[in-house]
Write a structure and sequence with these properties.
single chain, two-stranded antiparallel sheet, 2 strands, 65% helix, mainly alpha, rod-shaped, 119 residues, 434 Repressor (Amino-terminal Domain)
Length: 119
């Protein structure tokens, strides 16, 4: 989120946000206001880690307004899906090799049968 957008949301200036960003710590009220302006809870903002990005998706369902949180690391998901794809490719390759072997053996058997019939 750009500072200008957040500044408008919080009714402050971009310079103030830049100042806050460079501070070692913020009081809890200001921190909660910044988190609310970003649309996240203070806990999510407090636990945010740039080295391990986590997506937090909240869904509002029906009028019950139940909140479902899904936390996942996109890098972990990519690695997981890549491993699954590797396994699928290995399985496909194995089946193709078995098919080639079966066709080769069938071809050899047919060639032997043809040679016998010629005699």
């Amino acid at each position: 989120m750009k500072q200008e957008i957040l500044a408008k949301e919080l009714n402050t200036t971009q310079q103030s946000l830049s100042y806050y960003e460079n501070q070692e710590g913020l009081d809890e009220i200001l921190f909660a206001q910044l988190a609310q302006g970003m649309g996240v809870s203070p806990e999510i903002l407090r636990n945010f880690n740039m080295k391990s990005p986590t997506f937090n998706i909240q869904e509002m369902r029906d009028s019950s307004q139940a909140i479902y949180n899904y936390n996942f690391s996109p890098i972990d998901k990519i690695v997981e899906q890549t491993a699954k794809l590797e396994k699928l490719y290995e399985d496909i390759l194995k089946v193709e090799r078995e098919k080639i072997e079966l066709l080769t053996n069938t071809n050899k058997a047919l060639q032997s049968l043809i040679e016998e019939l010629k005699r």
